[in-house]
């Protein structure tokens, strides 16, 4: 992997995103809009918003980055752009790292906006540092980017890329502990939830919600989410195809 080629790929992706206002709106504005809506859905019980708002602060960025990244990467392949790029002295690792860097920079902006809105405007009450919330939200967005890059290799159209969402995202959403504590689930479901990265993202948010200091559990949760993102990026590089069959 060559840093210059990685940076050049990231710059190209960012230039393309600059001319795609709908994708920018989806990545930057939709998570904020969902948090705003959620706050006033529970206007009569702000404690409920405090309980689930922190978890959703990580889940919303993951979902939006997954959708945008998977569709954008697939569009590059179906248009022949990937084939032309890989015909040049550009390795798969350079390409995947460039995409991850570009969408990662967008994820930073997205996480800052969503966290700032939730904590300083919507009044999300957390015991720990808002910066730790921001860290987990950013890791979740990067995980969504990695998952999107990975699943795009198995889709033949943008519609198929969207169809991966029920298979990849929804099971994690149901089993992550958002709706009920994971230790209250059936043993088989709890065991499955223990290997899903979104479970650790929610646990990390809950650690910040309840503890004023950085805990060992929080460090573990953050490292698991970050490790999963790196692993999925590596799998994405290994499965990247030049064209859609």
Automatic annotation (TrEMBL):
It is found in: Cell membrane. PROSITE patterns: ABC_TM2. InterPro entries: ABC-2_transporter_component, ABC2_TM, ABC2_TM_bact-type, ABC_2_transport. Residues 18-243 form the ABC transmembrane type-2 domain. The chain crosses the membrane at residues 24-42, 54-74, 95-119, 131-154, 161-180, 222-240. It is a multi-pass membrane protein. It holds the Pfam family ABC2_membrane. Keywords: Antibiotic resistance, Cell membrane, Membrane, Transmembrane, Transmembrane helix, Transport. Belongs to the ABC-2 integral membrane protein family. PANTHER family: MEMBRANE COMPONENT OF ABC TRANSPORTER YHHJ-RELATED, TRANSPORT PERMEASE PROTEIN. This is Transport permease protein.
């Amino acid at each position: 992997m060559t840093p210059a080629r990685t940076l050049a790929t990231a710059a190209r992706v960012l230039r393309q995103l600059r001319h795609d206002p709908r994708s920018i709106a989806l990545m930057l504005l939709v998570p904020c809009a969902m948090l705003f809506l959620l706050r006033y859905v529970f206007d009569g019980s702000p404690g409920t918003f405090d309980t689930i708002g922190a978890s959703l602060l990580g889940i919303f960025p993951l979902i939006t980055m997954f959708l945008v990244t998977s569709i954008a990467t697939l569009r590059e392949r179906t248009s022949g752009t990937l084939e032309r790029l890989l015909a040049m002295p550009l390795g798969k690792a350079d390409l995947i790292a460039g995409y991850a860097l570009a969408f990662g920079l967008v994820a930073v902006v997205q996480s800052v906006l969503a966290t700032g809105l939730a904590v300083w405007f919507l009044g999300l009450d957390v015991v720990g540092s808002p910066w730790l919330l921001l860290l987990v939200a950013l890791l979740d967005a990067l995980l969504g980017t990695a998952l999107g890059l990975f699943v795009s290799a198995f889709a033949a159209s943008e519609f198929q890329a969207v169809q991966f969402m029920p298979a990849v995202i929804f099971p994690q959403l149901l089993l992550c502990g958002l709706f009920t504590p994971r230790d209250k689930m059936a043993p088989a479901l709890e065991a499955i939830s223990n290997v899903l990265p979104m479970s650790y993202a929610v646990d990390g948010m809950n650690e910040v919600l309840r503890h004023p200091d950085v805990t060992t559990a929080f460090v573990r949760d953050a490292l698991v989410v970050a490790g999963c993102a790196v692993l999925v990026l590596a799998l994405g590089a290994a499965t990247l195809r030049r064209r859609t069959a």
